Amino acid sequence: MRKLIFFMHTSLDGFVAGLKGEMDWINIDDEMFDFVATMTDKADTALYGRVTYEMMQTYWPNAGKQPNASKHDKEHSAWYNKVSKVVLSKTISEKGLDNTKVIGDQLADNINKIKKQDGKNILIFGSPTASHSLLSQGLIDEFWLFVNPVLLGQGIPLFKGVTETTKLKLIEKKTFSCGVIALHYETKHN
After folding, report:
1. Tens digit of pLDDT per residue, the chain (190 long)?
2. Of the residues 30, 48, 101, 103, which has the maximum number of CB atoms within 10 A of its CB?
């Protein structure tokens, strides 16, 4: 069965963005881009909430074609353009969207159907609101948390509205030269 793997940058005090959604505090460098590329190589589906999907759509489809495109831009743009995309939204339609499925209801049933299909892993990048819904229904199999060396004090929390205990097992950790520590956890399903 395919795994749903959650990728998220967080501040040390547990925020994924500032109060206005700002993410200018996130440390990213080539070492981290190369590391994430090893994860995208093992995935053929990207899952997003509507807001993150719309943000991704404004950049990634053409990022690799720009004259100043970095190695990462070229690689991730190529990956983004070929993978299947799943968007959790009750407000957009998949009509006119290329290689994209929109899920507006029956979240657990729909995600579990996708997980049972043949293929590689499913990655969810960011998308805090969608992630909260997935977590509350026990649909996330693994977490990669990129802890940035910053305290925000306030903002959008990493895990909002968690009402049940979710036990995790630390699988590995990686420290990047930019000061970010990646923590890889597996969900311990009962």
Report:
1. 899 999 999 999 999 989 888 889 998 888 999 999 999 999 999 999 898 899 899 999 999 999 999 999 999 999 999 999 999 999 998 888 889 999 999 999 999 999 999 999 999 988 877 888 888 888 999 999 999 999 999 999 988 767 778 889 999 999 999 999 999 999 986 4
2. 48
- The domain total for the chain is 1
Give the torsion through C-alpha atoms of 4, 5, 8, 12, to 10 deg.
Answer: 120
Task: State the residue range of the domain holding 88.
Answer: 1-15+35-124+131-156
pTM for the model stands at 0.89
CATH of the domain at 88: 3.40.430.10
74 occurs within a structural domain: yes
